[in-house]
Amino acid sequence: MRRAARPVLAPGRRGIRALSVSAHTLEHPTPASLESHLSTLPCNATLLFTLSTSIQSPDVGPLLAALHSFPYSYSLPSSATVGSDSRRNHVVGSFHQSATHTPEVAIAAFAPDVEEGERVRTFYSEATGRAPASVGKWYRTDEPDWPEDERGGKVGELDEVLGSKGWEGVWAARGDDTKIHLGDGVESIVTLTDGTPSPVLRALGAHGAMTTGLVAAATPFLTGRPYTLFYGGQVYGGGSVGVGITRPCNTVIEYGVEPLDAPAKVAGARGNLLLSFDGRNSNPTQCLIAALQARDGKGRSGITKDEEFYLAIMEPGSPTPRVVRILSGDPSRGSISLETEHPLFPGQFVQFMHRPTAPPPPQALADTLHFAVLPRTDELAPAPRTGSPVRREGFVAASEGGFVHGREPSVCTVAGAVLGVSW
């Protein structure tokens, strides 16, 4: 059956010279319900989607076929190709985890006003960071040669890096060869990454645009790949995909955490280690324990491994602090280890934080993308929920890996945190 041609601009947007963003989440999707939704989208739209890992493996293929056949077989106006670099690459996607274990697909459609020169350009980068070190005696002899392994061999190289880039350059210890070409005028970027996106985040940060997105859900038991990303009709097991948009976005982060004490000034730091405070008690770990003793009203000598606490880092010029998870602390030496690849610096102000209640599932809002962080768990996921197809306003995608945010983008892994993005 021949599908009727659709307008270049979405209904209700005709004549409005602005980027059109449609964001929806389809619960219990079928190929028919998905095609019905896609038929309502502007034909010059670029799609960014995530499938939940709660979708059964046999159902993934038909849903992907529907997504990658957008905008189907009718002819596109010549102007419609201006907004994206290639109609072959106008669909990008990956997988997310559903907080409610519901089979779902989240779809964001970006339709630029081509007459005003707006552009939505997609990208794929195969670059990926180094995986966490393995524990034990198992090893591989075919490991790739990582650039950071080659650094430091030249006499005086450490002093050279310290002199030009400071400890941040030493901490990064990686080459900066990754480049992602998005053209001029990019104001906002949305990306879906594998679990080690450091090189891609540095490359995206070079554009100076606000970068948002999600560390995708791992898919070894669903697709047989560690991660699964889609670009240009191809499937990749790592790297990053995304869209660059010549229009700025608005972002709001809800961390759901509360202060444990007053802000403190950093006196000593190295990489991801908070070494000392400027004040009466310079020992950061003892300061955290004292704050917990004041909160609990009882004696406490340390922090158990099951407790999670966070550090809010005040960023110059930003109304919203960056919140990172505390990995460990040493009461005798005072140092605190943080889950971040962005180094701390003396003079920054920080504040200990905690979460008073369990985080609720993220709520969707019309025309808004929400990326959320799920608590890490070793428990097996329950059987997926069953039901009839339902279309809801708003794009919601979550993972245990965290979301991406910032002009110098980093990954937020604070369980329960939610990032909202709109245009």
Brief digest:
This protein has 423 residues and is of the alpha+beta class.
Features:
seven-stranded mixed sheet, globular, Elongation Factor Tu (Ef-tu), domain 3, 6 helices, 24 strands, 423 residues, disordered N terminus, alpha+beta
Furnish the topology, listing elements before pairings.
Elements: E1 20-27, H1 31-38, E2 46-52, H2 57-68, E3 91-96, E4 104-111, E5 120-125, H3 147-150, H4 157-172, E6 188-193, H5 198-205, E7 210-215, E8 229-231, E9 234-236, E10 240-245, E11 250-254, E12 258-259, E13 264-270, E14 273-278, H6 284-296, E15 310-313, E16 322-329, E17 336-338, E18 349-354, E19 369-373, E20 390-393, E21 395-399, E22 403-406, E23 410-412, E24 418-422
Parallel strand pairs: 2-3, 6-7, 19-21
Antiparallel strand pairs: 1-4, 1-20, 2-4, 3-8, 5-10, 6-10, 7-22, 8-9, 11-24, 12-18, 13-14, 13-18, 14-17, 15-16, 15-18, 16-17, 19-24, 22-23
Domain FIST: 189-280
Protein name: FIST domain-containing protein
Pfam family, one: FIST
